[in-house]
Specification:
binds ligand MGD; oxidoreductase activity; six-stranded mixed β-barrel; binds molybdenum atom; molybdenum ion binding; globular; about 15% strand; Dimethylsulfoxide Reductase, domain 2; alpha/beta; 26 helices
Length: about 800
């Protein structure tokens, strides 16, 4: 028997008792509470982006978690699960902003009104009426359902997918393309290497690197914290074990980064501090040094690349009179010319793997360092050589380069949507300039006039840049709908707030193509308060609009899970892997796909390198494009036809550095996934007086009279936030680092420009597309100043529910 019977259709409530496995009550729970022996303890297999685990449940409450037994390196983030699942900031029932009910819509401030509780029936009717009205009056493009965000690990209850199915089947919507993670690289690489696989797919694996490479140059490092996360859930955190094995096998690691901590100590790496945003200059200088020594692989450049002559002339300075020598790069990058030259010649002398973190392209002109890194690998002739060449993101997420069999992941069928697609990070511009145009990757997009913004499974008040500007643009919408389990800043800035279940409150399947385990996620606790599954709330609105059956395909949760699993099982069978049937999978809690044998180590582009005519790349020339006629024809000065050095708008060499002399990096948090788990114990333990830590070099702090543990104000012309000071001698001087994810908590809600008292760095970051090619976010190009916070310390209130009005105050 499967999970088909686990919930009544459309409710997803209460797992049947017979499925609960009784275990002997342990003496102590994982959270340290003593067991009285009276409570019944139930263990359920479950999963999250931060790892697979077993949920420990007593009396309908999640009381602890135990890491998945097969995970070699589980990490601690799962420990925050009980705190967040039962947090005070869970949304207990549906709410509507009072001003919205009173007709204060387009242009009304968001984030300051009290919320009025309403019944599910009433909000369902309101949503159907409003969707019907806007579609009829303004057409489908007036609904923005791009809804970017990570949602949770389960593939059926994936909130964004459910929302986009609902909007797509209902007549279409304006959607988004690309991702905040690697928008720029994702748009660029098909022009250069003919594929995105080098950014987000199957790259040369660690087994091949360990066996063949002797040097690995890591721009942006291989930060240990980033390996805590796998999109879709991770059964095996192999990130650190795999790189440690490569070090033990004799690979020498070099971390080129403003931050020493980006290389795990155990790798014994050399640290080369570099100014943020200047990697393209260093790479060009390495190219110059290789060229000067005559070490470039002329055969590879002639037979497997196009455009070498154009790039060579630029490197040599024939094109612009500036030779890109190591001496030229030294004052730009802060890296001594001798170091640049030494590393370049070492690359030419040893089997070398080149990599860059995804962060490098989330910066002004972020196309350039990535394109130039490909050009370096082409000069070395290593693309497609066993365990060598170039790929992006080995240090960005668990699973990149993990040896694996090429099999699909369990997934929902794709969403059909005939509507517009806007580059995801250009949302503010879209809202600001209806009817205006936006250039993107050779196309001109006319921006729609958005009336409804509908979000599920993401948090733009976490992920977007320049939040004060964003808040003004956001308030132009007539109606903003948010589906959320928690009162996140997204929910607080919405008009109609729909409480969603967390994964623990429903059945699902976790799966990622980068992980070899597929995991059954058993419902562990009943829905909290009036929370409902995203699927069920949308099915009811679809019902009110007359298309429930098309939306549900007449399947309930259980039927969908069987259907998705069976589709996956059949796809695997076609590729030679026999997965167990659904019943066995569900009872055992996971399926393991056996890892490949060591002799099956994978090198990307090997066939192309061996036979470029027989296995051409999917570029216009079939070769690596060091000069792209396609890109050159777009005529973008901010992304010309070959890689170049363009000084970022904000960097340590800029004029603006006089007023705002510190370069702020906003990196991924070690204590949570983005804004998720922020109310949990792991994130709380890291904060300083309840504020997000900002790391600074001790001398930069001393120059401002600042001490470890103090609360500081971080500011620039775009905004200001509070933070807690942490000293870090492993930072380049002039660089400060503040992880993302502390929930935006404005001192005066609804007022753009208000101080964020909690420490969300996105009140400071600029919102400018990387270039007209990638139009990606450029959060890492950000200058700030830091000073002591002298005033009384305002409380952090964002982890408590916002003000709620009585139902009777309804007009
Ligand atoms: N300054 C700066 N900004 C950045 C970055 C940076 O490096 N610097 N990085 C960027 C990157 S790479 C990314 S990927 C983005 C991440 O941005 P997001 O993906 O938007 O961040 P999350 O906090 O993961 O948002 C997911 C939301 O979904 C909600 N959620 C989870 N499960 C469910 C569910 O079942 N149903 C519903 N309805 N909701 C659910 C969670 O509560 C959470 O609020 O941030 C970007 N922003
Ligand atoms: N624990 C945890 N892990 C995560 C996530 C999370 O939220 N929490 N988020 C996941 C997601 S969605 C993504 S997209 C990935 C992102 O993966 P990345 O983009 O690789 O992660 P970041 O932490 O933003 O950046 C990595 C390092 O790059 C360095 N860096 C920044 N700018 C520059 C530069 O200009 N030059 C050089 N050489 N180095 C620079 C910084 O020191 C930073 O520590 O992380 C994933 N992993
Ligand atoms: Mo990301």
């Amino acid at each position: 028997m499967g999970c088909g019977e686990d919930g009544a259709a459309g409710s997803g409530r209460a797992a049947p008792r017979r499925r609960l496995r009784r275990v002997r009550p342990p003496g102590h729970g994982r959270d340290g509470t003593k067991d009285t022996g009276a409570a019944m303890t139930v263990i359920k297999p479950h999963a999250s982006h931060w790892g697979y685990f077993d949920a420990v449940v007593e009396d309908g409450r999640l009381v602890g978690v135990r890491p998945f037994a097969r995970d070699p390196f589980p990490g601690t983030l799962i420990e925050s699960m009980p705190d967040v699942v039962h947090a005070a900031c869970r949304i207990d029932r549906p709410y509507v902003r009072r001003g919205w009910l009173r007709g204060e819509r387009r242009g009304a401030p968001r984030g300051s009104d009290p919320f009025v509780p309403l019944s599910w029936d009433r909000v369902t009717r309101l949503l159907a009426e409003e969707t019907r009205r806007v579609r009829a009056e303004h057409g489908p493009s007036a609904i923005y359902g791009g809804s970017y965000g990570w949602s949770s690990a389960g593939r059926f209850h994936h909130a964004k997918t459910q929302l986009q199915r609902f909007l797509g089947l209902g007549g279409g919507f304006t959607s988004s393309v690309t991702s905040y993670s690697y928008a720029t690289g994702q748009t660029l690489m098909p022009h250069v290497l003919g594929t995105n696989e080098v950014v987000l797919g199957r790259v040369t694996d660690w087994a091949a690197i360990a066996a063949n490479a002797r040097l690995m140059l890591c721009f942006g490092g291989l930060a240990a914290k980033n390996g805590l996360i796998s999109n879709g859930g991770g059964g095996a955190h192999e990130y650190l074990p795999l790189m440690r094995r490569a070090a033990a096998a004799g690979v020498r690691f070099v971390g080129i980064s403003p931050c020493r901590g980006d290389m795990e100590a155990e790798l014994g790496a050399e640290w080369v501090p570099i100014r943020p945003g200047t990697d393209a200059a260093m790479m060009l200088a390495m190219a110059h040094a290789i060229l000067a020594a005559g070490k470039e692989d002329r055969e590879f450049l002639a037979t497997r690349c196009v455009g070498w002559e154009r790039l060579r002339a630029y490197v040599a300075g024939e094109a612009d009179g500036v030779a890109k020598t190591p001496e030229w790069a030294e004052p730009i990058t802060g890296v001594p010319a001798a170091t640049i030259r030494r590393l370049a010649l070492e690359c030419a002398a040893k089997p070398t793997m080149l990599t860059a973190a995804w962060s490098l392209q989330r910066a002004d002109y972020g196309e350039q360092p990535w394109w130039m890194l490909v050009a370096l690998a082409a000069m070395l002739g290593t693309i497609g050589r066993p365990g060598q060449g170039v790929a992006f993101g080995y240090g960005s997420i668990n699973g990149m380069g993990t040896p694996r069999r090429e099999l699909p992941a369990v997934s929902m069928p794709p969403v059909r949507n005939a509507g517009l697609h806007i580059p995801v990070a250009r949302i503010t511009e879209m809202l600001e300039r209806p009817g205006g145009t936006l250039e993107y990757n050779g196309r001109t997009i006319t921006l729609p006039d958005i009336r409804i913004i509908w979000w599920a499974g993401g948090n733009p008040f976490h992920h977007h840049q320049d939040l004060n500007r964003f808040l003004r643009a956001w308030s132009r919408a007539e109606t903003i709908v948010a589906q959320e389990p928690w009162w996140t800043p997204l929910a607080r800035h919405a008009d109609i707030v729909l409480p969603a279940t967390t994964t623990l409150e429903r059945n699902d399947i976790a799966s990622s193509s980068r992980d070899r385990f597929v995991r059954a996620m058993h419902q562990a606790i009943p829905p909290q308060g009036e929370a409902r599954n995203d699927f069920d709330m949308l099915a009811d609105v679809a019902d009110a609009l007359g298309y429930r059956d098309r939306f549900t395909e007449q399947r309930d949760e259980g039927a969908w899970l069987r259907h998705l699993y069976e589709r996956w099982r059949q796809a695997c069978a076609r590729m030679g892997f026999e997965a167990p049937d659904f019943e066995r999978f569900w009872a055992e809690g996971h399926v393991e796909v056996p890892p490949p044998e060591p002799e099956e180590a994978y090198t990307q582009f090997a066939e192309f390198a061996a036979d470029p005519a027989g296995h051409p790349l999917d570029t216009p020339s079939g070769k690596v494009e060091l000069f792209s006629e396609t890109i050159a024809a777009m005529g973008y000065a901010d992304c010309p036809g070959h890689p170049v050095w363009i000084a970022p708008r904000e960097w340590l060499g800029a004029q603006a550095a006089a007023a705002y002399p510190l370069h702020l990096l906003s990196d991924q948090p070690a204590t949570r996934l983005h804004g998720q788990l922020d109310p949990g114990r792991v994130a709380a333990a890291d904060k300083i007086q309840g504020r997000q830590p900002i790391r600074m070099h001790p001398e930069d702090a001393a120059a401002r009279g600042l001490r470890e543990g103090e609360v500081v104000r971080v500011f620039n012309a775009r905004g200001a936030c509070l933070a807690g000071l942490r000293l870090d001698p492993g930072l380049l001087r002039g660089v400060a680092a503040m992880a993302t994810g502390a929930w935006f908590d404005p001192l005066e809600p609804g007022v753009p420009g208000s101080l964020c008292v909690h420490g969300n760095p996105n009140v400071l970051t600029p919102d400018i597309g990387t270039s007209r090619l990638g139009q990606g976010p450029s959060a890492q190009s950000c200058l700030v100043q830091v000073e002591r916070w002298e005033g009384p310390l305002p409380p952090v209130k964002v982890h408590l529910p916002p003000p709620v009005a009585e139902e009777e105050t309804l007009p």
